[in-house]
Amino acid sequence: xxxxRSSVDVSLAGVELRPPSYFALAALIDGPLHGxxxxxxxxxxxxxxxxxxxxxxxxxxxxxxxxxxxxxxEPYVVGGRQRRDYTLxxxxxxxxxxxxxxxxxxxxxxxxxxxxxxxxxxA
Length: 123
Fold this sequence. Notes:
Elements: H1 19-26, E1 33-34, H2 35-45, H3 54-66, E2 70-72, E3 76-78, E4 81-83, E5 85-88, H4 90-117
Antiparallel strand pairs: 1-5, 2-5, 3-4
Helix pairs in contact: 1-2
């Protein structure tokens, strides 16, 4: 399915965007990062709510690469450790934008319903 606003194939959205996936991909919005940096940034963006394990991260990245949402750079060595940077593709950015819009709409609906119900809920 092609989006009329873009030539990006948005049918590549097979990666389910649960919070760990959402924040891991969101970590790449500002530019390429290697695995450990993605883990750290996802934790920061989620205010500590998302703690990605190595296995979870690389399984997600493998799926995201296969779906065309992320590209993996060539491996390189820093301090004796092999690393690879991952970059969000235009399709990945589009999926993230759509997910953010959907979450914002859902939050607006729920917030509105809470206000209408008249009951104040505190965390």
